[in-house]
């Protein structure tokens, strides 16, 4: 997360009273390509955001509006309204059990669909497991919700081509996720031999038109944390595209100018990334490159929050879990970034068009209205006797 002073993310955590420890690895998600100044007088607020945060125990009432008409920007005195096609979230962690029930309503209120990550414990490695998880998500949705979870499989060295066929036949599985073993949360079962044991699976994914979602970092301890994405691009991603040129690849967690340039060098085929979050904060030149890419109108970039909730105790400890819960504030912040870049006319394509076009899905037909208005982010959300701390917790965004 970058504040208006571009402070490092751990300082942002400490500003919320969270204890600071030595080596804390943080997946900085949505905010990391954003220079946010919370003293700005107004912030963009979705009309579906939110009559109440409908979590068990605590609920925070916030301003709300209604669905809009065709896409437009409307100014009236100090407020502006922006009507866009309902967005989708192409990278989302919903977890399972009590935590799933606690957080799914936030995503359902903001987004029409979401690509749901499979790194549960145990991971979602089969079509049967994905279908069971899909049912669990549907049962946890608020009554009357039209939110559609799009499922993924967790790639391992033992995944078989026949499992990819079953995934396609399921009608609910749209992608396979590559986690290098040991790279992030619940990735211990991830891939160790991509070009060997996984090659038949990648070939079958091409035949089934199944996308590969990539967590783009090497895990070699001899590679500096700040260089892991660049080394991944050079030693894994580039050879992957060369060996499997017809494979559809989404590179997630793009954090460097090097990765952006590689994406832009792939004309039309192969790589189709979405830039929305960072594993580790990089230099300002990289943030500027990311902002320029996502606000450029380039159809190869699309929204994915990587919202990743953890209970408070698992975050506020000597080795806090990577991942930030940003679903309650995501649309507001995306709109703010595009506004500061003078690119509000390109926001709708990034949030609502480029993703479904890549996955071959119809665009949503309903609209949401964003109104530039002051509001305050809840300090926490309670569930099953525990707490989740959202991004920008307790901040008065009206200045």
How would you characterize the overall build of this protein?
The protein has 399 residues and is of the alpha/beta class. The protein has helices spanning 9-14, 97-110, 127-140, 161-170, 199-207, 228-243, 257-265, 284-294, 312-315, 330-340, 347-359; strands at 2-3, 35-36, 43-46, 72-76, 79-85, 89-92, 113-116, 148-154, 173-178, 211-215, 249-252, 367-373, 381-383, 386-388. The chain is globular.
Throw out a few tags for this protein.
EC 3.5.2.3, four-stranded antiparallel β-sheet, alpha/beta, 399 residues, zinc, globular
User: What Rg do the Cα atoms give?
Assistant: 20 Å
Mean pLDDT level: 79
User: What pattern of helices and strands is seen along the backbone?
Assistant: EHEEEEEHEHEHEHEHEHHHHHEEE
Low-confidence stretches: 1-29, 31-41, 48-71, 270-278
Q: How much of the residues is beta strand, in percent?
A: 15-25%
| Bulk shape | globular
Structural class, by secondary structure, is: alpha/beta
Measured distance between first and last alpha carbons: 19 Å
Helical fraction equals: 25-40%
Number of helices: 11
Count the E strands: 14
- As an assembly, this protein is single chain
Biggest beta sheet attributes: 6 strands, parallel
In what order do the strands lie side by side in the largest sheet?
6-7-8-9-10-11
């Amino acid at each position: 997360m970058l504040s208006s002073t571009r402070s490092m993310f751990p300082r942002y955590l400490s500003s919320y009273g969270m204890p600071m420890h030595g080596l804390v690895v943080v997946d900085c998600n949505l905010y990391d390509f954003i220079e946010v100044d919370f003293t700005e007088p107004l912030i963009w607020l979705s009309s579906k955001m939110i009559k109440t945060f409908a979590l068990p125990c605590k609920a925070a009432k916030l301003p709300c509006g209604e669905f809009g008409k065709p896409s437009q920007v409307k100014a009236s005195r100090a407020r502006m309204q922006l009507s866009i096609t309902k967005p989708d979230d192409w990278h989302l962690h919903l977890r399972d059990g009590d935590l799933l029930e606690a957080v799914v309503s936030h995503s359902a209120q903001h987004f029409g669909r979401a690509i749901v990550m499979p790194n549960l414990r145990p991971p979602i490695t089969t079509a049967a497991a994905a279908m069971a998880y899909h049912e669990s998500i549907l049962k946890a949705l608020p009554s009357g919700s039209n939110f559609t979870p799009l499922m993924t499989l967790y790639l391992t060295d033992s995944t078989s081509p026949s499992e990819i066929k079953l995934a396609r036949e399921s009608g609910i599985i749209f992608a396979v996720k590559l986690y290098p073993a040991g790279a992030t949360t619940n990735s211990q079962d991830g891939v160790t031999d991509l070009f060997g044991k996984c090659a038949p699976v990648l070939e079958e994914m091409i035949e089934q038109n199944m996308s590969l979602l990539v967590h783009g970092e090497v895990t070699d301890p001899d590679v500096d944390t700040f260089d892991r994405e660049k080394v991944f691009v050079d030693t894994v991603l580039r050879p992957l595209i060369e060996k499997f040129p017809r494979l559809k690849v989404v590179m997630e967690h793009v954090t460097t100018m090097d990765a952006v340039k590689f994406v832009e060098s792939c004309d039309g085929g192969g790589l189709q990334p979405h830039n929305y979050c960072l594993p580790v904060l990089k230099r300002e030149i990289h943030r500027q490159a990311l902002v320029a890419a996502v606000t450029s109108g380039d159809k190869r970039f699309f929204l994915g929050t990587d919202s990743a909730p953890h209970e408070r105790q698992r975050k506020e400890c000597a080795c806090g879990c990577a991942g930030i819960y940003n679903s309650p504030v995501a649309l507001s912040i995306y709109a703010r970034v595009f506004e500061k870049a003078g690119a509000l006319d390109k926001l709708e394509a990034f949030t609502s068009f480029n993703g479904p076009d890549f996955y071959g899905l119809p665009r949503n037909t309903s609209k949401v209205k964003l109104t530039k208005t002051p509001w305050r982010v809840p300090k926490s959300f309670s569930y099953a006797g525990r707490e989740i701390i959202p991004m920008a917790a307790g901040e008065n965004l009206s200045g």
